[in-house]
Amino acid sequence: MSNKHILVVEDDHEQRALICDILTLSQYQVTEADCVEQAILLIKAHDFDVIFSDWKLGQLTGIDLLNYVRKNTPLTGFVIATAYGTISHAVEALQQGSDDYLPKPFQRQELLLTIEKALKAKELRSQNQLLSAQLSEQKQLIGLVGKAPCMQAVYQRIDKVSATSATVLILGESGTGKELAARALHERSNRKHQKFIAINCGAIAESLAEAELFGAEKGAYTGANSTKIGRFEAADQGTIFLDEIGELSSSLQAHLLRFLQEGTICRLGSHQEIKLDVRVIAATHRDLQQEVKDGNFREDLFYRLNVVPINMPALRERQQDIPVLADHFIAVHSKQHQCQVEPLGSESYRALLDYHWPGNVRELSNRIERFVLLNDIDELTAKLSPETLSSPVHGNLPHIDLPEQGFNWQAFERQCLANTLDFHQGNRTKAAKYLQMSYKAFLYRLEKFNINSK
């Protein structure tokens, strides 16, 4: 039997028995309670890994229990079950520190997934208890906000490598906060009192790029009337952040590789090597491994850059952070523009939670800023309709000839799921993304059709 101990708090006897049976059959150690008061007594007597609580529990609520847990046993995983349609309860639970919420009625697999998610969150909090305390103030300074397990993993990696001089490659979609992560690495390092120089590699004119990055001697090119100090030389003893590294030309890739190998540069028009101490942090939204295969990026440079990769999650992968981020940006932009707006209502949170956020955290911040400036809720929720929940490319839909006699839809769906899983070599996360389907929905369908990855 698993040593993971789950406390189930539910005042409905039949519901509680069903939940306990599911968890017990899944090899969890289960204890049950029918009210908040009994649950608190059990928490005082035992160490639980996760608490699964209903929202409505007599005179008290699951939020009352959550507040007690976060105050007294803050590492414990917590999931709250809410009645269908009560999104305001779910939002409040996430804001108060619940690891997830589960709308009723729910399926067996959905229950087990939320328990697994809470266990992972608990494990990360246990590993990072000291880190969380150290970063609580730092995160506000550098703008990184979020409690989702995937963000906790980012904080953990930043903490581990920030004090070193290791080269870091930050990966993620546009708008996920890659530069904020780079600044966090710099601010937590022993270089924090030195320069942090950020460069967008895609915004440098090709004709000036070498001089811009590595400097140039007087007379090296037309108009070079004096010696020019490049960005790398200016960043000596500090950190240089190369954003959109995938846009770097092949000649500049060779120069950068030499610096990473030797720690030296040569100004344009000179053969004298200059020794520098610069930490390099690079970032890209591109798949550099694919770029290497396509011949667009040097393989040796990729491995030099990819010493420590940090993956910045997309906003849709950290949905529980959306209410927290929304409140954060309202406070930031209200202070910045000296504006005051009413707090968001449950319908607004619902719209934010349902949206796909192709522009990630940057898009959310921009929408919040526009809402604050105009004090118009429509500016925040406009066009966040179900039609925009994903970003379908209508041109890539497969053509299907429908037979006149009809066909078995469930068999077709099962075959489509199985083929997609095989195509991605059993990687469920990639398969779900390929089908533009939430991970939970994808796992539900796999279980529905009894499809097992290899």
Describe this structure in words.
With 454 residues, the chain is α/β, with parallel strands linked by helices. 47% of the residues lie in helices and 13% in strands. It contains 20 helices and 14 strands. A five-stranded parallel sheet has the order 2-1-3-6-7, sandwiched between helices. Strands 9-10-13-8-14 form a five-stranded parallel sheet. A hairpin with a 6-residue loop joins strand 11 and strand 12. Helix 2 runs parallel beside helix 3, helix 18 packs across helix 19 and helix 19 crosses helix 20.
In angstroms, what separates the terminal alpha carbons?
25 Å
What integer value in Å does the Rg equal? 26 Å
Largest sheet: 5 strands, parallel
Structural class: alpha/beta
Strand order of the largest sheet: 2-1-3-6-7
Number of strands: 14
Give the rounded overall mean pLDDT.
86
Assess the beta-strand content as a share of residues.
5-15%
Overall spatial form: globular
Portion in helices: 40-55%
Uncertain stretches: 135-141, 386-395
Q: Note the quaternary state here.
A: single chain
Number of helices: 20
Task: Reconstruct the topology from this structure.
Layout: E1 5-9, H1 13-25, E2 29-33, H2 36-45, E3 50-54, E4 56-57, E5 60-61, H3 62-72, E6 77-82, H4 87-96, E7 100-103, H5 108-127, H6 129-142, H7 149-161, E8 168-171, H8 178-187, E9 196-200, H9 209-214, H10 231-234, E10 239-243, H11 250-262, E11 264-266, E12 273-275, E13 279-284, H12 288-293, H13 299-305, E14 308-311, H14 322-337, H15 346-354, H16 360-374, H17 377-381, H18 409-423, H19 428-434, H20 439-448
Parallel strand pairs: 1-2, 1-3, 3-6, 6-7, 8-13, 8-14, 9-10, 10-13
Antiparallel strand pairs: 4-5, 11-12
Keywords: ATP-binding, Nucleotide-binding, Phosphoprotein, Transcription, Transcription regulation
Protein name: Sigma-54-dependent Fis family transcriptional regulator
Domain Sigma-54 factor interaction: 144-373
